[in-house]
Amino acid sequence: MTTSETRSPRVALIEDDPPTSDQLKGWIESARPGIRIEQWFDRDAAEAALASTRYDLVVLDIELGRERHAGVALINTINRLHHGTPVLVVSAMPAAIYRGIMKALDAWDYLQKTTFSEADFIDTVLEMLRAVRDKPAPAAASAGTTELAIDPLRQSTPLWRGQRLNLPLTAQRILATLYQRRGEVVSYEELFTVVKSGRNRDNVRKHVSTIRDALREIEPGFDGIENVPMRGFRWSAPQ
Questions:
Q1: Which residues contact residue 214 at a Cβ distance below 8 angstroms, ignoring those fewer than 6 apart?
Q2: Where is the Response regulatory domain (predicted)?
Q3: Which of 64, 126, 142, 213 makes a 20 to 30 Å CA pair with 160?
Q4: For residues 2 and 6, what is the distance between their CA atoms, to the nearest angstrom?
Q5: pTM confidence score
Q6: Which residues of 70-96 are buried (b: 16+ CB within 10 A; e: fewer)?
Q7: How far apart are CA 71 and CA 45, in angstroms?
Q8: Geometric angle at alpha carbon 2, from 8 and 129, rounded to 5°
């Protein structure tokens, strides 16, 4: 009993709108009873908490009060003090613009307000908490320097040829599926099963484009994800 209590996840919820904060808190508590959730409503209070506590998960908004990019500053604080802490950004800012920015800052995932359901939010939160719980020993992360090393449920830093790939969780899941089935055509319908929201072909194509861009940051000539018209995608990169 004592062991489970000491391992109870601790979540920081940073959102300046109290009703929204309470709603998100209620969703988390309904999915994971007993979880410790600390609510912060402004940048200063949140920064003080982050400076003294390493959370298992941080859920934050980008805009806090009159400060339009307070969340960016908070992510930088997390990266400086507690690098590797999962960060889920929940914001009204357009995902098409801000998802890439948050990815570059090492946020694990981005949900745009009014476009996701309670189930989407809970699935994302629980997946991140499992990633922290099941994080492998450091030695395991160094394996496979000449190929893809990725497990979206257990690590936040996939590696390609020993170098870090900057990818949100959904893109990691698609990449892991393509790589696991390398040499085979993976249909759109099969890829829909690893996409929590936006289960349509256009959204999958955008995720694949993000994956290609990330791989080309490491290997500029990378062309190992093949588009199979009307069917899906195939990992065709040589080992």
A1: 160, 165, 166, 167, 171
A2: 10-128
A3: 126
A4: 6
A5: 0.59
A6: bbbebbebbeeeeeebbbbbbbebebe
A7: 13
A8: 15
**Rounded CA separation 55/78 (Å):** 10
* Maximum separation of any 2 CA atoms in the chain, in Å: 55
The CA–CA distances, whole Å, from 90 to 36, 66, 103, 171, 215 equal: 19, 17, 13, 18, 26
DSSP assignment of 105-145:
TT-SEEEETTSS-HHHHHHHHHHHHHHHHTPPPHHHHTS-T
Start-to-end CA span in the chain (Å): 47
Best CA proximity match to 168, nearest among 215, 201, 227, 211 = 211
> Considering Cα of 118, then 190, then 203, then 129, what sign does the dihedral take?
positive
For the stretch 64-85, pLDDT in tens is 988 888 998 999 888 888 877 8
Domains of the chain: 2-133 (3.40.50.2300), 138-235 (1.10.10.10)
**Interval 201-232: pLDDT, tens:** 888 999 999 999 999 988 888 989 998 888 89
- The CA distance from 35 to 22, in Å, is 14
